Every structure is written in structure tokens, then in C-alpha cells.
Amino acid sequence: MATLMPFRDAIEHIKQTLTTVTTTESVPLSKAMGRILAQDVISEIDVPPAANSAMDGFAVRTSDLKDNASLTVSQRIAAGSAPMPLQSGTCARIFTGAEIPQGADAVVMQENTRQQENQITFLSQPTSHDNIRPAGQDIAAGATVFTKGKRITAIDIGVLASFGITQVEVYLPLKVGILTTGDELQSPGTPLSGGQIYNSNGPLLESLVVSSGHQVSLRLHAIDSVEATQTALKALSDCSDVIISSGGVSVGEEDHVKATIEQNGQLHLWKIAIKPGKPLVFANVYNTPFLGLPGNPSSTLVTFHLFARLALAKAAGEDLDLPKAIPVKSGFSRKGNQSRDEFLRVHINNGIATPHAQQSSGALLAASQTDGYLHIPAAHNVSPNDEFDFYPFCSF
Ligand SMILES: Nc1nc2c(c(=O)[nH]1)N[C@H]1C(S)=C(S)[C@@H](COP(=O)(O)OP(=O)(O)OC[C@H]3O[C@@H](n4cnc5c(N)ncnc54)[C@H](O)[C@@H]3O)O[C@H]1N2
Ligand code: MOO
After folding, report:
1. Domain identity same for 284 and 201
2. Residues in domain MoaB/Mog (predicted)?
3. Chunked mean pLDDT (size 10), the chain, 396 residues
């Protein structure tokens, strides 16, 4: 039996072997959401560019208020106007976001004053810096705000706009070819004949690829023959940066994916110490990086989340790791698998994990009905209150 590779070693191996395959383009900020930065982004300015008021009130020199409770207003500063220096012994009417006049070192909010015409009585003694947002509080000029490899979120668009960015250099979207294999598979929409099941991995993989931020170049299905598998993989390699397949990677005579790779590419790794998902293939076929996911639907899902997602990210130029694991307690007992780490589909209630009753790798619905994966290391018998890593589905 081939040795099973520990899952973190397999992730490392895949990331080390793959290189970024896409070229770059410049896009306007309005089209940058969801794209991957191909360059570091540096701010040329301080954000905010000048100190400004955090409150509607009065800008003062705190030293002027040491012996005085009352000052006259010498200027009015609205947001968007340039202030004059503050005359000593006076205060300035100021509004939220307006620039602090030179000489002022605090703003007193208007609720802490009494106003009589142009004369302001201060009801509290301010401390230097009160209610002043300093220049560069958010971003300092010269700072590297985002590094190459970051996928741009809606929040990032706001941040980029805050220091005046209009264009960003990003990688072209990764084109992913998808192959499903198996004589038993029928497309939804056609009645099933004897021995057939519906092809669920095709739509599942398309959706996973798209929700991971990539494009599907082409999806094909191959019956269980070496010729059909070769023809499909060749066609996919002609239009794709990376190919993902489901099924045909186990040891039966009807499993042709691995054989096709051995004839037309190089096998990098096969068989990982995880359940579900053991017979994952990572290879190169017709000069295209290739991930062969096991056909059992839960094995397809788990291996996409743990391996294919990170492989696609690496090829697309994205800096990505497994999501942050959340420590949770087990609310159950279970005999551990001797040689494979298990990824159970579990419910979480008040920080306690309970496994779905259906953990077969052939069953997909359990994943839809649960919150995420509980990672049980190999050879670990689970007792109630043991702590394990939990990966929520929403973090993939
Ligand atoms: N003798 C052994 N048999 C198996 C082993 C083994 O070590 N020795 N490993 C088992 C494990 S673990 C897995 S996982 C599967 C992987 O099999 P394949 O990747 O070769 O996949 P298939 O045999 O083609 O299909 C497995 C299963 O999944 C269903 N399937 C396949 N594609 C789809 C699809 N697109 N949509 C829905 N369902 C799909 C298929 O009908 C099978 O039921 O091998 C075990 N066997
Ligand atoms: O890995 Mo297989 O996925 O256990 O059924």
C-alpha cells in the first residue's frame, strides 16, 4: 500500500510545486473588487492628510484655559475650509472633520460649553489632544498598505479610495477546467436509467471554483475509458490554467484518471492521510497543473476545501492559507481512525461540537445541514470535552 501523506505536508508540497500562472492587467478601482493584487500598494499621503476635529465644538489652546473659563470666538472652521492660525486667548468654532488651526491642541465638544453670542464658557478643563484626530492616524505616508497576493474586498476598496488610488495592478482571473468521470453519471434534467445516479460533483465543483473567485473555462464529462479521459483532459488543457477532476483516482480497473496522467504527465502525489478524501491526486497533465479529487461527493468537497482551493489560489497569485481554526470542545465519544485524520461534518452549539449522524463519504447533504469540519487527528479516540480545531464552512 502506498504511504499516506499527512495533510499539512500535502498542502505544503502542492504550494511549493505550483507557481503563479496568470499575467497581470491594470483595472480601475470600480472594477477591482474580488481581484488579486499583483503589486504592493503604498500610500503617498497621510490619511487623514491633516489633524482634524472628532467633534462639533470649539478648538482651543489648553494653556489659555488654565486660569480662564471663557474665551471669544475668533474664527469659524467648517469641514473643507483651510483654517487660519488660532489667535492666542481665543477659541475657534469647529465642526467634525474640519482641520485643526495651527496653535490649537484640543477640541471641547459643544455640550461641555455655554454659548452667549461670541463668548464661550467652558464647563470642563480639556487635556491636550482631546478630540483631535492626528494627521496619518489611519494610514501614514509611505506605508505599504496592501501586499501583492491580497484578494481585494469591499472594505479594501474603501481603504484604497481613502488614499486616492484610482487604478490597481491585478492578476488576470484563473481559468479552471473541470472534468467529471464515470459511466453511472447522468445530468440533472434527464430521467435516470438502471445503475445511474445524477452528476452532482460537476455543479458542485463549478460553484466551488466560482465562489473561490476563479473562472470556469470548460466543464466536460468522460465515461470510464482511457481514450475518453485522455480526450477530455487534452481539450481542457488547451483552454485552462489548471484542471480539477472528480472520480477515477482509486485503484479499480475503471479508474482511468491516474493511468492517463502516468502516460501524459507527471504524478506529484497520490493518497493523503485524511478521511474522507484519501486518494487525492496532484499532478501535471498535458503541461497543465492537475488536481484529481476522489469521486465520493463528500471526499470531493473536503479535498476541494483543504487542497484544491489553496492550489488554485497559488496558481492565481493569491496569498491564501487554511482558514483560522477555532478551538471547540467535543460533545461526544468516538473511536479514532488509526491512520487518517478525520474531517467530521459537525453542528456547533454553545462552543460544543456534535457530529451529523451521516458521515459517509458518499453523502453530501450532511455538509449542507452542518456548520463546518471538526478535525480529529489520526489515532485519537474522542472523549467528551476534548478540544479540537473547527473550520466553519463559511470561512472557505
Ligand atoms: N479497493 C479500494 N477501493 C476503494 C478505495 C481503496 O483504497 N481501495 N478507496 C475508496 C475511497 S476512500 C474513495 S474516496 C473512493 C474514490 O474513488 P474514485 O475517486 O476512483 O471515484 P469513483 O470510483 O469514480 O467514484 C466513487 C463514488 O463517487 C460517486 N461519484 C463519482 N463522481 C461523481 C459525480 N460527479 N457526482 C456524484 N457522484 C459521483 C461514484 O458513483 C461512486 O459512488 O474509492 C474507494 N474505493
Ligand atoms: O476517502 Mo474516501 O473519501 O474515505 O471515501
Report:
1. yes
2. 177-314
3. 86 96 95 98 98 98 92 97 97 98 98 96 96 98 98 98 98 98 96 97 98 98 95 98 94 84 93 97 97 97 98 98 97 96 98 98 98 97 98 97
Q: Which of the ligands is closest to the CA of residue 196? A: 1
Q: Which ipTM was obtained for this model?
A: 0.98
Give the DSSP H or E segment for 58.
strand 57-60
Q: From the CA of 295, how far away is ligand 1's center (Å)?
A: 4
Domain that holds residue 110: 52-133
The closest residue, in CA terms, to atom 46 on ligand 1 is 250
β-pairing verdict for 106-109 and 387-392: unpaired
Q: What is the pTM of this model?
A: 0.94
Q: Which of 293, 316, 339 is the last residue of a domain?
A: 316
Give 186-198 as a 3 state SS string. ECCCCCCCCCCEE
Can you name the residues that pair with 121 across neighbouring β-strands? 70, 114
Closest Cα to residue 165, out of 302, 41, 303, 291? 41
* 51 within 8 A of 82, measured Cβ to Cβ: no
CA dihedral angle for residue 304, residue 305, residue 310, residue 311, rounded to 10 degrees:
-10
Nearest to 265 by CA among 243, 250, 295: 243
72 inside domain:
yes
CA-nearest of 375, 363, 388, 378 to 200 is: 363
90, containing H or E segment: strand 90-94
Per-residue CA distances from 347 to 40, 314, 332, 355, 386 (Å) = 40, 31, 12, 6, 16
Residue 308 CA to ligand 2 centre (angstroms): 16
Looking at the structure, tell me whether residues 311 and 235 fall in a common domain.
yes
